[in-house]
Design goal:
With 417 residues, this protein is an alpha+beta fold. 17% of the residues lie in helices and 7% in strands. Strands 4-3-6-5 form a 4-stranded mixed β-sheet, with no helix packed on it.
Length: 417
């Protein structure tokens, strides 16, 4: 009788186990994952190429979308405040349109408008091509930037290649022993980013000059209310590498053209800017030191191609907050997130008004400092946001992080406040 009961329990449990969602833990492991994770071999698939989603990005988001903080979630597909706080940002900010009296801020202005029809992500209907470039917006997807088959690998020589030693693990994280190549085994390129010679059917050939260097802490999708998440961006000259800004310029070359009035990128900060960055704490406070001045809202590229050095900087525990030296570099990601943010142009901080805080509060429509102001003025200042929404966009940093009247964070490098 006991055997019969046990067999019955197993028989009932097995279908349930088979129906459980696949875990994404170590799914890619730095390279190509199991085929059935993305492709349906025999049962009808939703999209072309036997994809389990209706298109390439929808397929990615079958795992990478979720309403809670999880390491691999880059979308919470939420009409409410986006949940995920990854260094690249939550694509759900694309669905947050803010309208109020005198305010119209479409969600599409908040980031890269990937096309993932299954989840309601659509092409940018305002920028038909990439700003400063010719890449067609209707073709933009996760696989425009990331190689889903993960062929790019870092060899022991430091070079990035598309073939050679097998990939044993991700090269993205700060565990040096497990995530560094050997003479016979490679590790994956940072975040499966595409490199030289990359092409996809949806995107066509994209002339990436190489893969940029970086390391991230193992836990990175998290609130920064208490401690920051530092991704250590680097500058490697090894074969197959490129700088972060040159990589972005693949689709946005016009933003980097000589002669344009653009912010410098891939240039050393110089002693003056580095000193200002290290001294700046908040508006009116220049008491900081190089030992603890790093801000994930204004990161820089460490002038090193050593992945060991970068791994030592990629922390989330309040350590490794050293600021830049004169040779460290400004880059596109110093101001922008890679996916999306709570601010226009996927900026890391707001530039829509001269203040980030007023009277020690964010500029929410429910802020005490707004009480008594004309409704139209409250709308223009808050731009349709509550205090909680401002705080989430700053990855839960409390308003007390800043000065009572905090000016925009361009001042981290320029200190004009």
């Amino acid at each position: 009788m006991k055997k019969l009961i046990l067999i019955s329990v197993i028989a009932i449990s097995l279908p349930l186990i088979l129906l459980l969602p696949k875990t994404n833990f170590a799914f890619h492991s730095g390279g190509v994952a199991e085929c059935e994770g993305c492709h349906s071999m025999h049962s009808p698939a939703s999209g072309s190429f036997l994809l389990v989603g209706g298109d390439q990005s929808s397929t990615c988001l079958t795992c990478h979308d979720g309403p809670t903080l999880s390491s691999y979630h880059v979308s919470s597909n939420a009409a409410t405040t986006p949940a995920n706080m990854t260094p690249g940002g939550d694509f759900s900010w694309l669905k947050k349109t803010y309208t109020a009296t005198g305010v119209n801020e479409p969600g599409r202005t908040h980031g890269h408008n990937i096309v993932a029809a299954d989840l309601g992500y659509v092409a940018d209907d305002n920028n038909l091509t990439a700003p400063g470039g010719t890449f067609v917006s209707t073709q933009l997807g996760c696989s425009s930037c990331h190689d889903p088959h993960g062929k790019y690998r870092r060899l022991q020589s430091g070079a990035i290649a598309r073939a050679g030693a097998p990939i044993k693990a991700s090269g993205s994280y700060d565990n040096v022993t497990a995530n560094e190549p050997t003479a016979t085994e490679a590790v994956g390129a940072y975040r499966l980013l595409a490199g030289n010679g990359y092409s996809t059917t949806a995107s066509g050939v994209i002339g990436y000059p190489g893969v940029p260097a970086a390391k991230a802490p193992g836990t990175y999708n998290r609130t920064e209310a208490a401690t920051q998440t530092r991704v250590a961006y680097g500058v490697s000259t090894a074969a197959g590498h490129t700088t972060w800004s040159n990589w972005c310029a693949t689709c946005h070359p016009g933003m980097h053209s000589t002669g344009n009035t653009v912010h410098p990128v891939d240039q050393g900060l110089g002693s003056r800017i580095a000193t200002l960055y290290n001294q700046y704490v908040k508006s009116g406070d220049m008491t900081g030191t190089i030992a603890n001045s790093f801000s994930s809202l204004a990161p820089f590229a460490t002038n090193s191609g050593s992945y060991t050095v970068l791994a030592g900087l990629a922390k989330n525990d309040g350590t490794a907050l050293g600021g830049p030296g004169s040779g460290d570099k400004v880059m596109c990601l110093s101001c922008h997130r890679a996916h999306a943010s709570g601010f226009v142009e996927m900026l890391r901080f707001d530039q829509g008004y001269e203040f980030m805080t007023k009277g020690g509060q964010y500029l929410g429509s429910d802020s005490p400092d707004m009480m008594g102001l004309p409704f139209e003025r409250v709308s223009r200042l808050s731009r349709g946001r509550t205090n909680a929404e401002w705080q989430r966009a700053y990855y839960e940093r409390p308003a007390s992080t800043w000065a009572t009247y905090q000016r925009v964070l361009c001042n981290k490098c320029h200190a004009k406040d």
